[in-house]
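Hi D.,

Good news: the full-assembly prediction came through. Inputs first.
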Amino acid sequence: MTDIVSYAVQGHLGVITLNNPPVNALSVSKGVLQKILDAIKDGEHDSAVRAFLLVGSGRAFCGGADISEFGKPAAVGMATLPVLAGYMDTVTKPIVAAIHGFALGGGLELALACHFRCAVAGTQLGLPEVKLGILPGAHGTQRLPRLIGVERALDMIVSGDPVTPEKALELGLIDELVKGDIATAGVQFANRMLREAREIRRTSGLTAKLEQPAEAFFAAARARVAKEHRGYPAPLAIVDCIEAAVTQPFAKGAARERELFERLRASTESKALRHLFFAERQVTKIPDVPEDTATIEIKSAAVVGAGTMGGGIAMNFANAGIPVKMLEMSQEALDKGLAVVRKNYAATVAKGRLKQADMDQRMALLQGVSSYDALKGADIVIEAVFEDMAVKKQVFERLDAVAKPGAILATNTSTLDVNEIAAATKRPENVLGLHFFSPANVMKLLEVVRADKTSKQTLATAMKLARTIKKVGVVAGVCDGFIGNRMLHGYFREAGFLLEEGATPQQVDRVIEDFGFAMGPFRVGDLAGLDVGWYIRKRQAATRPAHLRTSKVADQICELGRFGQKTGAGWYRYEAGNRAPIPDPEIEALIVKASGEAGIERREVTDQEILERCMYALVNTGASILEEGIALRASDIDIAYVYGYGFPRYHGGPMFYADTVGLSRVYEAVKRFHAVHGEFWTPAPLLERLAREGGKFNG
Ligand code: NAD
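Then the structure:
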């Protein structure tokens, strides 16, 4: 077995090779850092060794810290990265990093502690810690500004985005761009540094350059970062650290960095972001569908219905280079659908985000067709016709008749029973729901709805397809609204009830936006169009249980012809050409009147109640969804909400948020609401049990 860090003397070089697959993570407990330190100490005493070369085996130099060690007690007696990096500063023989694949996070910090750096083309170099709610905690915030200048270091660390080696060379982050096999190129580069007797350049000994007065620069940086990263503490802490790199000696700056790193690591925001990092890796796993389940290859696709959703769905395939046919009821509808797709691509080209040639290539992959026969060869067909069971069944019967054996037949229904749709075919094992979100070419979430008879192969293929078309697939069971929309129902219901009880649309929206959503429920309604929900409510009115409370406000607004932004008025008023919502006294009067008609005495509604009613409505339904097995795990619900509904990432998703509040507190509130508002708030048994046991959803 190869050691996780190997050390060999090659000519004048002590070559230290990281060998901790898959990404050469700097695991403290496995002793990766300690072994690097031991190797350096060995070579320091070896007169044959004149310089050190640090290189990674496998696909990359180093992916950084082992984040599974976060939150665990430190391994006793093992070197950490700050200790190793600090020691490297004292070494009098040159230490060279030869980088390939990527040097990210701690991996780049390790390279920054070296005295010279080279990299091959195609490498990524970056400090992405901010994306996990922390900051580079092993001198990254102190060494990088000293090496490449304050402005550029600030941009790199606050964004967390990697740079190419070409850019890195321009920035002075690496000393040379090398070619060929990294181990060989690294040896050549290191030997040349020796031959040329290059003076050791310790990043800790450099001065962080800033072309402008520090005080004004950092005040402006703080203001900009606070605005662009609202709710996230890490970017502001990064500004503090970089300021220390300018105003303090290295050791003091490093101490400040450590202090802020520890504070961030313990923060709820960082825990939430780390939770999502792992949740995203879990979401692809389906307990009874092994990872090596055979899948079918999707080489061609078809979409039935070229409306709002169908066009966007088809674009996903064209974007992935998969030919896709679109079937409509009439040539006119087809032309309209294709024209919308073309317009969407053209807008992206106009913004400079897509080349005209790429647009042409994608459009060439899209073909409008007018008969079911044309769908014969498709490996997958996704239906996106009107939300009407009779129409959907008819479509599936016809698809069953023409589609090739084994082809996947998927429905994009939002509310209908996928089992019933599957039963319209003789191959229910090949049927499932693929619930895209609008706009379907943009939104990352894809609910993959597993029906009773959906085969494992069909499900595994759909999950793989999700990745191919760059979506995050979340498995959901069959129920009204699946995971996301079923939960959302209660959120909008409570937002509406709160108005009747004394709140205003602007108060509710403000509370939800302060929590971190881009828009509150009423602004969302105005953006999406209020007429859609109105038609649905009218259709459902006959079957709605009469004893349940309903609010008439939304319907009354639609009756005034106010459908939201598209009509210039909805819950708010809008000035022509401006999307800024203006609170409207007419709506407030309408709400007050509705309260009176419903016999509700208006009262002062606190911000806290608004937040609790809206969020715990999500959480209580989420608990039922989990218990019923509609979602496989709480973290899947969190992923769905973050990618499909704009739930603030720094709260980690609704279920993680409930865990951080404490489930007994959530449960007590739900019970309180139940006592006042009745059956909508019946506590989910799972919530009750976990609250009693002191448990968590994401346990
Ligand atoms: P839409 O009305 O914009 O488009 C439906 C299209 O289907 C129309 O162009 C219509 O001509 C065509 N069509 C109807 N019957 C057909 C048939 N028999 N054969 C071929 N084409 C037919 O509707 P939409 O918003 O795109 O919704 C489509 C489906 O997607 C619905 O099931 C809806 O519930 C679901 N969905 C919609 C959204 C959304 O935000 N709009 C989100 C997720 C899912």
